[in-house]
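Q: Structure tokens for this one, please.
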Amino acid sequence: MSPSLVRPSVVRLAVAGARRPQAEIRILKQLQEKVELCAVCDPNETLWSVWKEQFPGARFYRTLDDLLSDDTVNAIIVATPLRMHAEQSVAALKAGKHVAALKAGKHVAALKAGKHVLSEVPAATRSSNAGTSSRPSKRRSSSTCSLRTSAICGPIC
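A: Here is the predicted structure, written as tokens:
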């Protein structure tokens, strides 16, 4: 969908990290009235095929810098390895994107990364949210979908 044809109030979303698409694709399909997946970023092009099949209009990027320069993207799900979350979240926020970082708060490293993000990005420019893992657990089996949905689209739902 070209930027001029984008529906108002639809979040134009990108996913950074294409390794585990099952949960993200399921949630995005459920939210298709409010969320348009317009880009996927992963240096491993062999991971793109699942995304291309489900979202044929999406653009694909090998680098985060290329994704961040895409003016049609206004929100990014950071689904890369945890060690990359802080740096990528800061870069996305500084580029004016909203950020949902999956797995945030689950590990001590994520908490340290969150502190780094807060120290690097002025409060006026921050718009981020933490999601949960898509793997079922005894503590959050039925709430995972609602938590993930909230992390992806926040107040627009």
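A few notes: The longest helix spans residues 108-120. The first strand starts at residue 11 and ends at 16.
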